Amino acid sequence: MSNEKKLTEQESLQLITTMIQKAKASYHERGISAILWGTVVAVASLVTYLRREFDFNVPFDPFLLVLAAIIPQIFISIKQGRENKVTKFEDTAINAVWLVYGISIFALIFYQNVVPSATIELCRQDGWQLMIHYLDGSKPDEPLHPFVPSVYSLFLLLYAFPTLVTGIAKKYAPMTVGAIITYILFIASCYTASKYDMLFGTIAALVCWLIPGIILRRKYLKQKSSNV
Amino acid sequence: MFKELDPILHSQLRLAVVSLLIGVKEAEFTFIKEKTNATAGNLSVQIQKLKDVGYIEVEKQFKDNYPLTTCSITKKGVEAFEKYVKALQSYLDAGKK
Q1: ipTM of model
Q2: Which residue from A42, A114, B43, B60 has the highest number of Cβ atoms inside 10 Å of its Cβ?
Q3: Is residue A204 part of a domain?
Q4: Does B33 touch chain A (CB under 8 A)?
Q5: For chain A, where are the alpha helices, taking DSSP H only?
Q6: Does A131 score more than 60 pLDDT?
Q7: CA dist A110 to A103, A157, B45, Å?
Q8: Are A144 and A69 in contact (CB under 8 A)?
Q9: Is residue B80 part of a domain?
Q10: Which residues of chain B have pLDDT under 70?
Q11: Which residue of A has its CA nearest to B13?
Q12: Who among B35, B46, B91 is closest to A22 (CB)?
């Protein structure tokens, strides 16, 4: 492109349109992160559901997989940071939303693990404890170990939030649809046994991240091959 | 009365650079070079002209031991671009009458 060529008004407008389109078309999410998180959360939720449904044991908590996925995610983020030659305005905000989401997930895990024991201790300090009382009198009363009821519903709520923000900000329909489905699953999970919440978690991971991630990946690879 | 077209923007390569930057937060020099098909030397000169009038900001740093130049449009650049597009529209509207 030369500099000194005199442009007509039409040529100027045409040039502006072309360059704006080039900037838009040049940018594609690679979809790797979405595929990674979609896979690990889906697998962890599904294994947990199967474990509860069919009463079998695995030697470790399947959700440790989710924790382990942080390591490849760090490498993916570094690699993408190196490869990205252009940054869009919404990227900073969306990255911040996902960071806050990560912190919130860890905060919720902390809450889930700490609140039951803390409740027992607080009750004990007040001189009482929670008890199970069988209405039909079939068994004697016994101490109740407190738990957070339907806690996975809260995870579903968290899964939907950054996904919907990303879907709306990036105008990416698969993520928006995935987030809406997850909000519906959240409502359903409030009425079902907690083991089914895990099954809902599997569906949420598929529709929020894995499927949108695969679609993104295919688009990215298609664009990459067309640029060669 | 026609508005005068900004001579800084009314040049093929400079207009291309500003049009690329208008929709993004920042872009690397190599990205701009690739999208405009300009030579590195010519692009550097035009980027410097845009920087001198305050339409873009240029940040030079090192990444993995390689020099990295990043460009972003300024508020002044956005205003100038909007003014330029409005002026273009007035020319085109007049041509239709």
Answers
A1: 0.88
A2: B43
A3: yes
A4: no
A5: 9-25, 32-54, 64-68, 70-83, 89-126, 151-169, 173-189, 194-205, 211-227
A6: yes
A7: 11, 17, 56
A8: no
A9: yes
A10: 1-3, 96-97
A11: A3
A12: B35
